Hints:
This protein is mainly β. The chain contains 1 helix and 5 strands; from the N terminus they run ββαβββ. The protein starts with a strand and ends with a strand.
Amino acid sequence: MLTVNVKSVPGENLMSVKIRISYTEEEELAGVIRLLSPALKSYKVSGKKEGKYRNAYADLYPGFQNDEPGEDAGHAIQ
């Protein structure tokens, strides 16, 4: 199971987006990174390996706009 949480952070003129990605398989993370790559500024994989889920944190470029319709943020992808 993969869960993506999106949090908008107010900036000066543009909003910065920070994303926490919870995943169980490395392939899940690779797929999310591939999908986010046009807007991806950076990402970091947490060193914590305890528990069922691992976490990664991504930052998107401020002001990135995707004109394609999509789903609402915060839904689990299975």
